[in-house]
Amino acid sequence: MTHRLGFLACLALVISGLPLPGQDADPVSQVQDVTYRRLALSDKSKHRNLTFSVTFDKNTIGADLAKGNPDSPAFGDGNLEFRLIPGFDTATAFNRMPDERLEYDVRGNIDHRQGSLTFWAMAKDYSPKDVRVSDPIKSHKPYLYVRFQDGDEWVTLFFYQYFNDTRAMFYYHNSHGGNRDYKLAAAPLNATPMGQWFQIGATWDETQISIFLNGERINTTLLPPTVKETAGLTPNPEQSFIGVRKMLWAGAEEHGETVFDDLKIYSRPLSVTEMKRQYVELVASSVTVVLPNFDIQLHGIDDCGGDLDRLEALIDLAPLPTAWHGLIAAGKVRGKQTLTCPDGAVRTGVLSVDGLKLRHTLVGLTQAGEYAFSVDLSGPDGQSEKATQAVVRPETTWFGNTLGLGDTVPEPWTPITLDEAGTVKVWGREYRFGNNPLPQTVTHTGQSILKSPPTLVIETPSGRAAINYAITERVVSGSAVELTGVGKADGFTIRGVTRIAFDGLIRWDFRVHGEPVIDLMQLEWTVAPEFSRYLLAPLLEKSPTGEHAFGFPSGGRDSHYQLWLTSKRKGFSWSPEHDANWRYGEGVKPLTIDQAADGGHCVVRMISCPTSVPEGAEYHAMFIATPSRPLPKAKRTYRLGGYGRHSNCDVALVSHAGAGFESVFSFKPEDKDSYFEWWMDTLARQNMSKLAIYGGAQTLNDKDPAGSYFGKYWDVPGGPQVPFIDKRRKPPLRSMQTNACPRTSYSDYILRNQKLLFDRPKGKSIHAIYYDIAGITTCSNELHGCQFADLFGRRITRLNIMGLRRHLFRTTRYAHQRGRLTIWHAHSYYNPIVHGSGDYWYPGEQFASMMLREKTPYVYTDVADDDIYQSELNQEIRGSGILFLFQLQRANREYGTTEQTLAAYTKLLLNDIPTSMAYTDETVTNTIWGIFLKYGLDNATAHLWDDQTGVTTDNPGVKVTYYTCPKGRVLAVVGNTARQDQAVTVDLSRLNPPRTGVREEFLCRDVPVQGGKVRLEIKARHFSILGW
Fold first, then answer.
1. Dihedral sign, CA of 684, 688, 690, 693?
2. SS3 for 130-152, per residue?
3. Rounded mean pLDDT of 142-161?
4. How does the average pLDDT of the chain come out, rounded?
5. Cβ neighbours of 11 (radius 10 Å)
6. Comparing 121-125, 411-415, 695-699, which segment has the lowest mean pLDDT?
7. Among candidates 980, 968, 966, which has minimal Cα distance to 1022?
8. What is the pLDDT of residues 306-363, one digit of tens each?
9. Distance CA 679, CA 686 (A)
10. How many CB atoms within 10 Å of residue 540?
11. Domains contained in the chain, CATH given
């Protein structure tokens, strides 16, 4: 699953006028089960730190309070007298007419660096809770668009309902991030029907954004370091605005009608208590709600540096009356803390009150259950305030387990060895290091991959440095080889360790000593021309000149976090984890590749300007030769149905909403009401005997006890949030996806849960572990060390390559120990260092957007480049088996007919790409699977259409791929990729077909052979499968 924008984001709303209501409105508005009080206008504007308020209660669009300009010049006279519509409290609301622009000045009214806001919305002619992917009219429903801009620098805050589900979104983006490096906080509207008013709230600062629904904080997302780069932005009034009901994506056709009311903006992030209080004071109720005057938040601590017995208490005293602020500043406030444990034990102590923001760490918490933490404040004259917060600590017996870890080589890899000449052998490859920290030669199944080896080039003011390397220690363990060495040059020394893992990953960590001045430091290598045909970075990159230049990867989907040059069979790849201590000038793109006739020349510039390198500055380099593993035994006949039940499939992917488990992504069987056993029995009755359990590689949900308790410390800032509903549970369980960095103990938790799953008697039907959301991202969470400062003071953010690699290999190792397989999914964002851990790779989802854009089911033949099939979808260069995921019926329910499925298969068959069954005509897929099984294609050799010379045709528009199969059999795929029917003569004579004829296996009929040739009539985009 991926949150996609782009052309889909351009769908929008059409707004029309509403009937004029009577002007004598009831002062209390009844909406569903909630009534709201109608406050006096003066009361609505009395909140502390309020900088802007527009309520429309005076039947005008002019702001009731504004630190800046209160007017909207673009709107006209601003009179709403003749278009009155009741708001959430029966006072006037705003309903935008077509082509109207209600925009206010940002200057003085709102701060892009920090603040809070609230507004009310009501869907008049659509139901927020009933939006579905299949709706014929899809459009984002815009609420509020705030833009701060000066020239090319900008910050965007946008609030809207996502086009095809039930989420209200707080979208944050700035000009220092990539096109897709936006961040989202989401609140589900799945309990909000048409006609019901709801309040959206938001807070933001330089670290995070939060979204609130009806006073309750729903979701918080940490922001990337780029936020700080916009701190000095001064908005240009010509480019900046507060746009009510304004769409972010211009030029869209709009559908739907949303009424808007009471926008309030504050100069600081309000606390959770303050946001709740402002909502509660609007609710008309006979019950008095008492809220504390300050806020406490509790978070389980997992900082990757200690045990899990610590609890963080964040105490926000800013909401206290201003008189308390002066007392705190004067040091006249005393604090007392009280912790009540699950067993009833009480711990008390003094709390130092030395500011408005306090952080306190509680230690020694090992019991599972509810902890209540209270803070009592007392002033010099007997004043007092108190707040209490509770949190449920999960059991943590899973912490520190070694499941899936160990110093052994798991199947299907082979033992790693080191000989006296310094050559390391791993499956399929030999790396000769000699007396160097980087390989001097790389061979894969007997072929030399490199024209020139990776070399660290350093230039000082004296010129290019001559570095003399020596390996001082060699250590061989059960799963790796470590080479410790030193490099000596005039004026500096390099010391480091090279570690070669059993899968062939080479990682060199080194430090520079002597504080030299370095003008240039870069890695250089050249891949042999025969292995430089494709550049996957990770998607296929093409250039008319063969030259490419990339910035350092930011972690978004546009990032280039690998330089993988490859043929259709073998290649060589580099990836970074971070760019700590790199120094490349403004505008310099440090990653360059030249795919030239004499090879693929690669350069990674770590330092490109004169730099005094601090003592001990640390750097690293990572390489791997590919493929890094053998293909699975069932490399063409692994019959995965896809999501849910499919006919004749061997393996079904199930529990994508968490059915049978405590919650989605947890892998932990649910014991209550024997839910897991019931679910396994239900699937068995539907003839699903082999199951792949749906999960995520770096995600949990807000209902999971561990995911909730450690959520702040496990979080991957800006990761996706998607709502899930397990409808099979009674009552249904609604949850929101959360993100979890695999560098944390999250990995321990998931592996323990998988053990619980495999240990169940009914867990015998579990055939594979499936990880969605398995792509490379950045993690900027400094709480567990993913963000840190380098020696130059730069804030560094890690790519999750090493943490994700460890977690995925751990999962595969344990799955194999228990007789299971693994399947990873991240579109075509395959990284061989990370994803070579999996038995299968499940790409293809990315074609849905292509179909929607092109408005045709024939993108597989008419649009997709052949080079995509031979690189991004090629299992031979990966070692992980490909299970292609069609998108026909997913992109459009009208797609997926027999004819369209045949067309979709043509290029996949020609390029030897195995498929799953999902979203296709299942009869077609079943027939093809049957043919593959009949001819034993798992043990066959493919001869692809653009490489083979064994079969020719008299029609250049018709291509042939054939397989030499066990027992001397042959299977040939004849594909017509043209948009017209084609007649063709296929010359099979070099393969000695029977004179009596060959079998057209798909159509189950015999085809005569004359002189070794067959004559075929093939429909547009279709294929014929000939066998003998």
1. negative
2. HCCCCCCCCCCEEEEEEEEEECC
3. 95
4. 92
5. 19
6. 121-125
7. 980
8. 999 999 999 999 999 999 999 999 999 999 999 999 999 999 999 999 999 999 999 9
9. 11
10. 16
11. 6-280 (2.60.120.200), 295-393 (2.60.40.10), 417-626 (2.70.98.10), 941-1027 (2.60.40.1180)
Pairing label, strands 651-654, 640-643: parallel
How many helices (H) does the chain have, and how many strands (E)?
15, 66
Task: Find the DSSP H helices in 897-1001.
Answer: 898-910, 922-934
Q: Which of 1002, 842, 983, 1027 is nearest to 906 (CA)?
A: 1002
The answer to whether 639 touches 767, Cβ cutoff 8 Å, is no
Residue ranges of alpha helices (H) inside 778-864 are 801-817, 832-835, 847-854, 859-862
Strands 540-541 and 998-1000, bridge-based pairing: unpaired
CA distances to 14, 24, 84, 197, 900 from 20, in Å: 19, 12, 6, 18, 51
* Extended strands (E) in 47-166: 50-54, 65-66, 102-104, 115-123, 141-150, 153-161
pLDDT at position 361 is 98
- Please say whether the beta carbons of 658 and 733 come within 8 A: yes
| pLDDT 10s digits, 722-779 | 888 899 999 999 888 999 999 999 999 999 999 999 999 999 999 999 999 999 999 9
pTM of the complete model: 0.89
Which residues are paired to 1018 by β-bridges? 982
Which residue in the block uniquely carries the two structure tokens 């004359």? 1010
Q: DSSP secondary-structure letter at 958?
A: E
Average pLDDT of the segment spanning 817-830: 97
Q: Are 42 and 55 contacting, i.e. CB atoms less than 8 angstroms apart?
A: no
Residue by residue, DSSP assigns 191-202 as T--TT-EEEEEE
Q: Could you give the CA distance from residue 494 to residue 482 in angstroms, rounded to a whole number?
A: 16
The 10s digit of each residue's pLDDT in 449-464 is: 999 999 999 999 999 9
Residue type, 975: G
β-strand 153-161 against 141-150: which pairing, if any? antiparallel
- How far is residue 702's CA from residue 738's CA, in Å, rounded to a whole number? 6
CB of 51 within 8 A of CB of 105? no
Q: Is the dihedral of CA 986, 992, 996, 998 positive or negative?
A: negative
Number of residues assigned to the chain: 1028
Largest Cα span, the chain: 110
Q: Where are the alpha helices (DSSP H) in 409-449?
A: none
Q: Tell me: pLDDT of 58 over 50.
A: yes
Specify the amino acid at residue 183: K
In Å, how far are 81, 197, 246, 367, 603 from 93, measured between CA atoms? 11, 11, 16, 51, 60
Dump the DSSP string for 217-276.
Answer: EEEEEEPPGGGGGGTT----TTT-EEEET--SSTT--B---EEEEEEEEESSPPPHHHHH
pLDDT in tens, 461-505: 999 999 999 999 999 999 999 999 999 999 999 999 999 999 999
CA 1014, 1020, 1022: angle at the middle one, nearest 5?
Answer: 65
- Residue 224: the pLDDT is 78
pLDDT greater than 50 at residue 28: no
Query: Which residue type is seen at 1006?
Result: D
Collapsed DSSP state (helix, strand, coil) of residue 455: strand
- 3-state DSSP of 328-350: HHCCCCEEEEEEECCCCCEEEEE
Asked whether the beta carbons of 1015 and 982 are under 8 A apart, the reply is no
SS3 for 216?
A: strand
**Residue 335 near residue 351 (C-beta atoms within 8 A):** yes
Is it the case that residue 1001 has pLDDT exceeding 90? Answer: yes
Residue 862 phi, psi dihedral angles, 5° rounding = -90, -25
Q: What is residue 77's DSSP assignment?
A: S
Cis peptide bond N-terminal to 321, omega within 30:
no
